[in-house]
Amino acid sequence: MEKKQANNNILGNHLINQVFFNKYKLVKKIGEGSFGMIFEADSPNGKVAFKFEKKRPNKRSLLKSESDIMIYLKGKGIPSVYLYSEEDNYNIMVMQLLGKSLENLIKESEDKKLSLKTVCLIGLEIVPILKFIHDKHIIHRDIKSDNFAIGYEDPCQIYILDFGLAKKYRSSKTLKQIPMIKHSKLTGTARYASINALKGYEQSRRDDLESLGYVLVYLLKGSLPWQGMVAKTKEEKYAKILSKKINISTEKLLKNYPQELIDYLKYCKMLQYEQDPDYEYLMGLFKNAITTKLNESIDYRFEWVNNDDLEKHQKYNEQSIDLNNSNKIETSSMINNINSLTIGNSKNNISLEESNAKAKTQREKMSYYDEVIDENIMIKKEKGKENKHKKNEYVHDKKGKKKDNYEKKHGQCFCLII
Question: What is the pTM (predicted TM-score) of this model?
């Protein structure tokens, strides 16, 4: 492991100040792991993050799968993806640069833990993000403090990261969930994994929510009872963690903390595999803990924000509201002028046929991503692509369809611009 990290450091130093695609200049390395490395980079439009993944022979790219899922999701709390590229030794994703992770924030805090209000506000922010992901038929499967970060420009906004282990849990057409089979290995991080995930059962929405509960307990207390367990093998360690999670009661785990937090975790543990979680109820628990138990207002006053951050966040929200209102006005105009030849548009007048064609194109594009993130389809496409063109890349035409044998040079690298 030390040798691997040393190699990563050497590669990282070599890449500093390198320019990719004639527009992105790597500034510094901001993270690394078994997947590869993450760099901060400058671009004409501002700072971005570069994520490198070392290619694995005969194995599909987790980074490719992650970029497809993030493009498909695209919403509040989901980082934007700007570019994906496959190179000789590495796969590269260029994405929105974010601020510190929740793990970094707790380590930098004076008491190595966060306040009750901040933790409840975090829960209140993350539950709707998970609902948004789940409503689009995806589960994350690696909920942990490292995989949530605040915005780089707006520290009041929380984002969810690392969709490398995410997958579809049900058909987007029939809404039928995949069978609840038992696996031999755990997918995710044992410290925050649900009890059923540690037992090896197929994961669903309940597992993401239960994992979030353990993350919140960790942020609140600074540690979890099953941390630091000594074992000879990984399997033995997982078994010890599972045993501890099963045997410690939720009341004991959250002793001296509001009943609402106990109710959250107990509810998540009782959810059935295919049951629709009551996200509104879970959000209500956090709201009640803030307003009733703490007698505080529901705002964005996390421990790490100041008044300037709050003003900046308010401006972002106002811009978002203005954009939404603009879209509503345009939609209303479309309905009112359904029998006319043109539709009012702020930039120019477009025909009804053109508007319908544009909407159809968007649906087809989303349909493509909905299909490509299905694990089985993904494997078939990747295998077929490897057999025909090992280094072949593709882009999508305006209808979202795949084009083979397309390569385009940008500086040092070939790239897929999304």
Answer: 0.77
